[in-house]
Amino acid sequence: MLKVTLVKSPLTRKQNQIATVKALGLHKLHSSVVKNDNPQIRGMINTIKHLVKVEEVEA
User: Fold this and answer.
1) DSSP at 2
2) pLDDT band at 59; cut points 50, 70, 90
């Protein structure tokens, strides 16, 4: 499981990065979500790696 935390604002970023933040379920700064660790989520995180902090957590 991965804990993804939004640490920078996506407002002035490209449209695909804004959509990726919304698709992950991140709304406000410092909001966090816990997602399963799979290739699709890793790809989404890689797209916005400069905007988020990622931690591995136990299930």
Assistant:
1) E
2) confident
